[in-house]
DNA polymerase IV (Lactobacillus kefiranofaciens), 372 residues
Amino acid sequence: MSKENLLPQNDIHRRIIHLDMDAFYASVETRDHPELKNKALVVGQDPRHNGGHGVVATCNYHARKYGVHSAMPAIQAVHLVPEEELVFIRPNFEKYHRVSAQVHSFMHEITDLVESVALDEAYLDVTHNKIGQESSVQLALDLQKKIKSKLGLNSSFGVSYNKFLAKMGSEYAKPFGRTVILPDEALNFLGMQKIAKFPGIGPKTQEELHKMDVYTGGDLRQVPVFVLLKKFKKMGYIIAQHAHGIDLRPVVADSDANRKSIGMERTYEPAIYNRDEALTKMRNYCEYLEKELKKRGFHAGTVVIKVRNNNFETVTKRRKLKHPSDSCFEFFDVAKDLFDSVHGFLEDGIRLLGVTVTDFEKNNYQPIKLFE
Ligand code: DCP
Ligand code: MG
């Protein structure tokens, strides 16, 4: 069988934008502390003040020049960057959520077909948009400009006919750039990319592919589809489609209808060693969950908690409620029970706590109207 008829029919008629904020947390902090502009800024706790603990959440491009990157032990940044240039700043997640919401409000001026992947990253399907603008590139440029002028932040975007190409484009554009990949340019663009840049090709798959003399997207496209399929199963088929510029996944809007859970989690520095303090946090989360559910008219059937200690051990525990509910008291009762069933974490210090509710059903009764 030839490779062509193993692949699905391509769709080149959609217009997709992928936008990703540059060095997101670090850029927000630089904006709010202009005196740090010329420093190597690392978001995370300073390991020199806590016995060498912690990891880098992210860092600015100046710090990246020294080889610092996300998820690296913070102490390594201390070794890499000259002392007089290095600044650690504690993350302020509430602020990042606020900025993210502002970015999203600009996106929703263009379309409601916005699919968030992370706080700082989203896909927009602008094939049909609220502005009535034909040029998806113009829409993306205007969005990027607005984020810069209203929020003082840099972002990068890719525009193409599918999600995977748009995302490859925005990665390629970083920092503060843009990549437009038209249908007849896609194979050229992909051909020159290293396979490590393709989603789904991790270190192990890379190694396997290198053994087959496959280093670039161009090499990858030469490999018959059935070979990739046989070797890498389901993922191989996805990789094969990518090599040919195909990705048929729709942009799925973040609307309430698509939501399968609502949760709240926070990291704590310094860590929490006290049960009452942990429970107070969880009670606050439950109040937030009740508010969110009431807004949407949903009841939740299951409560899930997540606890992480200073050694980065993480447990999640879940329990089904007797009846679906939107009451913070009921959520908290269960969350407290689940929390007490996690042993040994308080002693090590808790650095992350989360409560999520899931298994939604529509709340069908109407509250009684006391006054007409
Ligand atoms: N983040 C984190 N831990 C990671 C990766 C990321 O806490 N391992 C956080 C910090 C980032 C934000 O998520 O600011 C967005 O992640 P990105 O991977 O998009 O990284 P940046 O926006 O920081 O940099 P880039 O310019 O490469 O997008
Ligand atoms: Mg980013």
